[in-house]
UniProtKB/TrEMBL annotation:
Organism: Micromonospora sicca
Taxonomy of the source species: Bacteria, Bacillati, Actinomycetota, Actinomycetes, Micromonosporales
UniProt cross-references to Pfam families, sorted A to Z: Cad
Keywords annotated in UniProt: Membrane, Transmembrane, Transmembrane helix
TM region positions: 6-32, 44-67, 73-90, 102-124, 136-157, 169-192
Protein name (Swiss-Prot/TrEMBL): Cadmium resistance transporter
């Protein structure tokens, strides 16, 4: 029982540490869902599960030695949220509410994957060291915490102050958040120096 609690606690700590920025993304998406009806709340929840599932699945496959992820090329995934943010800035129809930066389940999953591409570097050594039973505990904890993250973001996204802030500045704030996320992924991944080396 002690081993089970220790495994669950460790999984919760790793999940929280690697997904704290997802709260911001999810909150923005839930506010956009209230204002623009896109994406729908179930798109956000299902897309988050799909995105986190893809990240964990990739980490498990890499940990098993079945695939090599070229590092730092995963940083190019940062172009996805940048593209979505720029598109929302260019295509905004009105200034009264947040633009629908992401309008579908797959869009939410894509942003989740792009925002969490660096998580794979943390998850791979962890899953490599776990036995199957402990790995299952980790997967269950991750699944529960995705729901907790979505619930917390939905509450934040429904808070009057947050809604008012996004209503006033949403036409540029929401796209700016996505562009900042993408830029952070690009810069911290180390892919930009690699691209510069290729260009010279």
């Amino acid at each position: 029982m002690t081993d089970l609690l220790a495994a669950a606690s460790a999984a919760a700590l790793v999940f929280a540490a690697t997904n704290v920025d997802d709260i911001v993304v999810l909150t923005v998406l839930f506010v956009a869902a209230r204002g623009a009806d896109r994406p729908r709340p179930w798109h956000i929840v299902a897309g988050q599960y799909l995105g986190i599932g893809a990240l964990v699945g990739a980490a498990v496959v890499v940990a098993a030695g079945l695939l090599v992820v070229p590092d730092p090329w995963t940083g190019l995934l940062g172009l996805l949220p940048i593209g979505l943010g720029v598109r929302a800035l260019l295509a905004r129809a009105d200034d009264d509410g947040p633009p629908a930066v992401v309008g579908s389940l797959l869009g939410v999953a894509g942003v989740t994957i792009a925002n969490g591409a660096d998580n794979i570097a943390v998850y791979v050594p962890v899953f490599r060291s776990l036995d199957p039973a402990t790995g299952l505990v980790w997967l269950l904890v991750f699944a529960v915490l995705v729901a907790v993250w979505c619930a917390a973001a939905a509450l934040l996204g429904g808070h009057p102050r947050v809604v008012r802030l996004v209503a006033r500045a949403g036409h540029w704030l929401v796209p700016a958040v996505f562009i900042a996320i993408g830029a952070t992924v690009l810069v911290t991944s180390g892919v930009l120096p690699r691209l510069a080396d290729l260009a010279t």
